Amino acid sequence: MAAGSQEALAQLYDRYAGLAYGLALRVLGDPGRAEDAVQEAFLNVWNRAAAFDPARGSLRSWLLTAVRNRSIDYLRGRGAHERREQDLEPVAATVGGQDPWHEVSLKLERDAVREALSSLPPEQRQAVELAYFGGYSQAEIADMTRVPLGTVKGRMRLALEKLSS
Amino acid sequence: MSDHEELESNVAAWVLGALDRQEAEVVQAHVEGCASCRETGARLQRAVTALPLAVEEIAPPERLRDRVLAAAAASSGSTRAPSRARKVVKPPARRTVFGLLFDRLPTYAAAAAVIVALVAGLVAGDLVARSGQVMPPSEVARFTLSGHESLTGAKASVIELKADGLALVDFSGLPAVGQGRVYEVWLITSGGRADPAAVFVPDANGSKVVLVNRALQGYSLMAITDEAGPDGAQAPTQKPQMYGSVA
User: Are A138 and B18 in contact (CB < 8 Å)?
Assistant: First the structure.
């Protein structure tokens, strides 16, 4: 049994490690810490696998959310139990890739997201990126960018509306 | 600004994880009772789920793979029964009756590591059947394969994770293969074309969990044959003695 599970984990690793590591590196900027975050996220998924509910989202989004959360923890220099801000949980089911179209649909998804992000007004993109990749709260973002809190909320809303269309 | 407007204005920050814990709890409590905010949240959540894709995919160093597998092997000694997930703030889910039902059922396993739970016999399908509720059309499909003739007594449970485009197949009761041989998993179209999907050797107990790294869409059957190892054959060399519908 253990051998069988190992092979399955290895296959999942091979499938998602590039996305996971790219994300961790984006958040942390440091390859060593990014490796640690990815390892912990995979372990987290491995150990909490009984809590995975496939109806709530794909394995991919669950894993990548774990990578993002763990990376933000590292960035903020704290353990998971100290996380003061909200944990992101994957929810919406994404349209999954299907082999042999997996690579193609992943590429299409990626192109669509990048296109949408780059066409956002800079201040909206910044609000989303600070929150998602930087782990900042909306209050912190308002401080950092020197705008009222209401403005930040509006920017986030507008950005996500555009990205989701 | 009304109370509702105030709450609604926080939904975007909420799905981005940009609220502090207290604020997040307030928004979640509201969303659970407000259909329009729930819809908004679900829509905005889709955008957030896609954000990691905006980042360039970068292959990590080889050593990370070894580290992950070694760490998992070390930790898999402690298998736990599924427990209720710790209380965390959850963005909106599809809160149909079935959605509420999902929350109350012990969440069930489908990820790779959850093979542990599969092998321990915890198949949530049984739980659902006992409770008399119907599974919602979902991102998961289940099938069974049965063995015939020389594979009589062998069984397999197939769990297809549609969102991930892969399936897990949990075999039991398989006789050992001959020296240098493997069992090969085939996916067969309604036109009769058999595509090779995986090869494996059962463990000493006749069990194995296999990951089929592709979607089952478009195939009618999954079948198993005994082939020459280590890589199996390009086409089945015998009539399959274990098979089941995956349509």
Answer: yes
How many separate domains does chain B show?
A: 3
Mean pLDDT, rounded, for B225-233: 90
Residues of A in contact with B51 (CB under 8 A): 113, 128, 132-133, 163
Look at strands B194-200 and B181-188 and give their pairing.
Answer: antiparallel
Cβ of A86 within 8 Å of Cβ of B18? The answer is yes
pLDDT in tens, A58-76: 778 888 988 999 999 888 8
First to last CA, chain A: 44
Q: What is the pLDDT of residues A10-19, one digit of tens each?
A: 888 988 999 9
| Cβ separation B17–A86 shorter than 8 A | yes
| Complex ipTM value | 0.84
Residue B136, pLDDT score = 42
Residue ranges of domains in chain A = 1-94, 95-165
Per-position DSSP letters for B147-211, written without gaps between them: E-GGGTT-EEEEEEEGGGTEEEEEEESPPPPPTTEEEEEEEE-TT--EEEEEEE---TTS-EEEE
- Which CATH fold topology does A1-94 show? Rna Polymerase Sigma Factor; Chain: A (1.10.1740)
A/B interface, count of CB pairs below 8 Å = 307
Which CATH architecture describes the domain A95-165? Orthogonal Bundle (1.10)
B226 within domain boundaries: yes
